[in-house]
UniProtKB/TrEMBL annotation:
Pfam families: HgmA_C (PF04209), HgmA_N (PF20510). It comes from Mesorhabditis belari. Fe cation binds at residues 333, 339, 369. GO terms for biological process: L-phenylalanine catabolic process; L-tyrosine catabolic process. It catalyses: homogentisate + O2 = 4-maleylacetoacetate + H(+). Its EC number is 1.13.11.5. This is Homogentisate 1,2-dioxygenase.
């Protein structure tokens, strides 16, 4: 059996892939999807990621050739997960700047599903447009348990602990400074290598795509070939499994007597993938001024309004700051978008202190924010030499055109109640001309 450290991946973003587990190299039928009998007695099953009639350029579906069809399970019953929600209508608005200390990894045995925790979000899973932002913190494998999200796609950003992700499409090792995307409906199970924590961006009704490059040209930012999709892998395990479904924001469980990871081969363009953020080709200002952070967009989940995202996934990787006569850190600003930030490793350039790896911040629609006092003081003085910005760091932003609501528990737990004090010492420097 191939272990998680020696996995092969298929290269490319959104390609039409075709893959069979090397133990059964001819698992895919030749030239058709539904032969009267599939090779090796497999069942064929389609997983649709878009409407059948979606335009060809955005149409997503895959064909799975599996030992048993997914439908063989017992009825779903409620599964208690009280730190999760997709129902943001029930919480009160709060326009403050929010910063959270790292979400704690529990002492008691907790797997990925049990350790999910919702911070904020907006929109609606039922009318199929919106997003939610969650964290996970766990210390236990999802033993004989698989999860799928009927409501949307997950973009998972591990901050501590590599994740061994088994999916219906194959297996993925997701390291720190890597991300993985598990599209709507795909069953997966997460094993860990130690205490684990990370962030999740969930979007409903759309899938992530690469941003357009416009005048940048044909190359740059996240290059398509650096996205890695698993090769088919299956296990034949006739043992009790629990399938956890998140449907309309609520968790359900169903029993079945076999592993859901029994897909021997699959083909199509709807599949999970991972990406190493250190491969991002950074573009930035090389003469003067601070460019908008959209230059750092890795993936975008577009709304129906051109250029307006349900959520953009933006990173702040290490790079050279060279701009002349420029206040180089992020500018003070108010935005018609909502900005959620997380820190994977290192230090964020706009904050001299307080924003910790594993922590988070939310600057809501039109809520002012920007560099803290120490950052402003340090960067308005001194010679502007070329300088490596935040060596070895990786922070990110989930930016959304939706107004986000914070859960009641996130308004109480892990809150840095001193955050607003970061800006209070900013001095008045104005001098009235005589
Ligand atoms: O608020 C933030 O720190 C994120 C951010 C970074 C940047 O370089 C410009 C604008 C912006 O919102
Ligand atoms: Fe901002």
């Amino acid at each position: 059996m191939v272990d998680f450290d020696n996995l092969n991946y298929l290269s490319g973003f959104g390609n039409e892939f075709a893959t069979s587990d090397p133990r059964v190299p001819d698992a895919l039928p030749e030239g058709q999807n539904n032969p009267q009998q599939c090779p090796h007695g497999l069942y064929s099953e389609q997983l649709s990621g878009t409407a059948f009639t979606a335009p060809r350029h955005s149409n997503k579906r895959s064909w799975l050739y599996r030992i048993r069809p997914s439908v063989i399970h017992h009825p779903f019953e409620k599964f208690e997960q009280n730190a999760w929600t997709n129902d943001f209508g029930k919480f009160s608005p709060n326009p403050n700047q929010w910063r959270w200390n790292p979400h704690p990894i529990p002492d008691k045995g907790t797997d990925f599903v049990e350790g999910l925790y919702t911070l904020c979000g907006g929109g609606d899973v039922i009318s199929r447009s919106g997003l939610a932002i969650h964290m996970y913190a766990c210390n236990k494998n999802m033993d004989h348990r698989a999860f799928y999200n009927a409501d949307g796609d997950f973009l998972i950003v591990p901050q501590e602990g590599e994740l061994e992700v088994t999916t219906e499409f194959g297996r993925i090792l997701v390291g720190i400074q890597e991300i993985c995307v598990i599209p709507q409906g795909i069953r997966f199970s997460i094993d860990i290598r130690g205490p684990s924590r990370g962030y999740i961006l969930e979007v409903y009704g759309v899938h992530f795509q690469l941003p357009d490059l416009g005048p940048i040209g044909a190359n740059g930012l996240a290059n398509p070939r650096d996205f890695e999709t698993p090769v088919a892998w299956f296990e034949e395990r006739d043992e009790p499994f629990e399938i956890i479904s998140k449907y309309q924001g609520v968790f359900f469980k169903a029993k079945q007597n076999h592993s859901p990871f029994d897909v021997v081969g699959w083909h199509g363009n709807y599949a999970p993938y991972k990406y190493d953020l250190r491969k991002f080709m950074v573009i930035n200002a090389v003469a003067f001024d601070h460019a908008d952070p959209s230059i750092f967009t890795v993936l975008t989940a577009q709304s129906t309004r051109p250029g307006v995202a349900i959520a953009d996934f933006v990173i702040f990787p290490p790079r050279w700051g060279v701009a002349e006569n420029t206040f180089r850190p992020p500018y003070y600003h108010r935005n018609c978008m909502s900005e959620f930030m997380g820190l994977i490793v290192g230090n964020y350039e706009a904050k001299e202190g307080g924003f910790k790896p594993g922590g988070a911040s939310l600057h809501s629609m039109m809520t002012p924010h920007g560099p803290d006092f120490a950052c402003f003081e340090a960067n308005t003085k001194g010679e502007l030499k070329p300088q490596k910005v935040a060596h070895g760091t990786m922070s990110f932003m989930f930016e959304s055109s939706l107004s986000m609501v914070i859960t009641d528990w996130a308004l109480k737990e892990n809150v840095d109640w001193n955050y607003h004090k970061d800006w209070q010492p900013l001095k008045k420097h104005f001098v009235m001309p005589k």
